[in-house]
Amino acid sequence: MKVDFKTLAKGATMVAATLLATTAAQAKDFRLGLITPPPHVWTKAAEAFGAELAEQSGGAHSVTVFPARQLGNEAQMLQQLQTGALDMAFMTVAEVSNRVPNLGAFYAPYLANDITHAAAILRSDTAKGMLDVLPQEAGVVGVGYGSAGMRQILTRGEVKSVEDLKGQKLRITPFDPILDFYNLVGAAPTPMPLPAVYDALANGQVDAIDMDVELINVLKYYEHADTLLISNHMMFPMVGLVSARVYAGLSDDDKAMISDLMAKHVDSTLDAYVAKSPAWTESLNGVGINVMTVDAEFFGPVMGEWESIWSAKAPSLPDLRAAADAAK
Question: pTM here?
C-alpha cells in the first residue's frame, strides 16, 4: 500500500488549522462592569481576577475592567448581562434583588452583628444556595459573594434619636428592602448614584446618606457632615456575575476556571472588609464630626415592621436567620 505523504501532510495542516481556529474562537477578552471607583476594594478585586485569569488560561482569556459606571448604572448593566452584551459584573445584591426578591433577605436589619459575622453568613451553604435560581430568574450566573461592608448613616445635622431622621432626605441605593427600612424610619429615602453624592451633601440636596465606612473615608463624604451613626444596621453584599448567555457558550473547562477564579476574588473582598473596617471606622473619629454608636434599640419598632413586610417577599429569610445564628 502506497502512502501519499503529501495528502497526509495536507490533512495534518488542516487539522492544525482547525484546532487553532477553535482555540481562537474560544479565546476572549471579557468585559467586566462595576459602579465602584478605581480605588475601591471591588475594583481592585476585579483587576486581580482578570490578571489571574489571563495567567491561568495561558493568555487565551483576558478581562477589561470598566469601573465607575462606565457601562451604565447597575440596572443597565444587568440588562446587558441578560442579553450577553456584557460578559461579567461585580454587582450589589441589592440590584439583583430588584429582579429576585428572595435576595432581599440579606438586608434584614441586624441579621449580622458585624462585618465578620456578615462574611460568615455570606459563606454559608444557605447563602450560596440562594444563587441557584439566578440563571432562570435573572439571566445571570452567580459565582459567589463579596461585600461592601456594613451600612452606616452620615448626616449633615445633629442626631440624638431616630426622631431626628424623620423627614430627612437620605440618599440610598434604590432597592426595596432599604427603601422600606427608611420609609418605616420616617426619613425621605432619595435614590442617587455614587458620583453625585459628594456634591449633594455639600449643597444640601440631601440631608444624610446610607453608606459604608470605606467610601465615607475614601470619597471624604465626612467633609460635609456633622454626625456619623455607626449603626451596622444592614450588611451590603456583592455578587460576582457572569452573563448566562456568555456562560452557556463556554467550554466546561473554561466554566470551571472562570467560576473558581471569580469566586476566589469576589470572596477576597470579605477578608478585605474584615481586615480594614476597624481602621476605617477609627479614622472617622478624628475628622471633626460627632461619631455615635447605636444598635437595634435606636430604631425602635422598625425591625419588627420590616420583618412583617419581608417575611412574605423573601421565603429564604428564616433559613438565612438560622444560618446567621449558626455562624455566630
Answer: 0.90
Q: Which residues contact 220 (CB under 8 A, 6 or more apart)?
A: 198
pLDDT above 70 coverage of the chain, percent: 92
* Residues with Cβ within 8 Å of residue 153, at least 6 apart in sequence: 159, 165, 170, 208, 209, 210, 211, 228, 229, 231, 233
* Residue that the C-alpha cell 420583618 belongs to: 307
Q: Can you give the pLDDT at residue 18? A: 38
Give me 176's grid cell.
426595596
CATH architecture of the domain with residue range 28-327: 3-Layer(aba) Sandwich (3.40)
pLDDT digits (tens, 9 = 90+) for 30-69: 999 999 989 999 999 999 999 999 999 999 999 999 999 9
List the grid coordinates of 272. Answer: 478585605
Residues 121 and 31: their CA atoms lie apart, in Å, by 29
* Cα–Cα distance, 297 to 310 (Å, whole number): 20
Q: Quote the CA–CA distance of 220 and 37 in Å, as a whole number.
A: 13
